[in-house]
Amino acid sequence: MFKNIFGRLFALYALLLFAGTMLIVFIPIWILSFFPDPKKSKGFLIIGRVWMKVYFPLIGCPVSKKGLEYFAPGQTYVVVCNHNSLMDVPVTTAGIPGINKTLAKASMGKIPLFGVMYRIGGIMVNRSSEASRKQSVAEMKQALKMGIHILLYPEGTRNRTPDPLKSFYDGAFTLAIDTQLPLIPSLLFHTRKILPPERKFFAWPHHIAYHFLPPVPTTGLTRDDIPAFKEQIFKLMWDYYVANNHK
Fold it and tell me: CA-CA distance, 62 to 56, in Å (whole number)?
């Protein structure tokens, strides 16, 4: 009973603190939205990293990172990550070094105030529209050419199963192979403990770990190699998650 009550009060506290701090940073981020990329994304991430560096400790969810040394200066990467909760996007956006964007639902970009930030940090896609999907791929490739890392969640949606990972879609691996850029697997730990998928409006404080694995080259690979490449990354991430989830 106590945990249920505390979890709901904590969820309310975390939500109100997020909304309150968002109002503080909104004006400079809104001004940045009128600038072209990569300038607006760079400015957004500078503000966002400070924001999250303050916000996460205040809600009892400090973030630790491991493997940042795998990001070579001047090299652009396709980054893939597991997806367990709504906490994942702010952790990964602030956690990946350099400028980065992710693929985001077009509907999220229509939310008042919050949508402005989503449109800067994400490439919008309406998954029910083939034209929108094709346009989003073109925009991701253009962003990579500009030196912006692209983060994708290959599971597609949040993993609500008891398994470490859900099966992967091809998109991230196709993008890495098409652009011949190295792919960095990454893993988030404990965000599911903060926002358990089976409970509504409930949260629990817990530290978050974000680990990056060594980059996997794609040089010489073709689309024929996508199934094997996808399976290789899936196994790497599954094994690493199983070995490190208790830490």
Answer: 5
CB 225, CB 173: distance < 8 Å: no
Q: Which of these, 70, 207, 87, lies nearest to 79 by C-alpha position?
A: 70
Question: Which pTM does this prediction carry?
Answer: 0.94
114 by Cβ neighbours in 10 Å (0-12 / 13-18 / 19+) ranks as middle
Q: What is the pLDDT of residue 104?
A: 87
Q: Which of 86, 33, 117, 99 is nearest to 208 (CA)?
A: 86
Burial class (CB in 10 A: 0-12, 13-18, 19+), 25: middle
Q: Which structural domains are found in the chain, ordered by start?
A: 2-244 (3.40.1130.10)
Q: How far apart are CA 182 and CA 71, in angstroms?
A: 10
Residue given tokens 């792919």 in the structure block: 183
Mean pLDDT, residues 74-80 taken together: 98
User: Can you tell me whether residue 171 is helix, strand or coil?
Assistant: helix
Q: Which residues, 6 or more positions from 117, have their beta carbon under 8 angstroms from its beta carbon?
A: 22, 26, 29, 44, 48
Strands 183-189 and 208-212: antiparallel
Q: Which of 131, 107, 133 is nearest to 119 (CA)?
A: 107
- Model confidence at 108: pLDDT above 80: yes
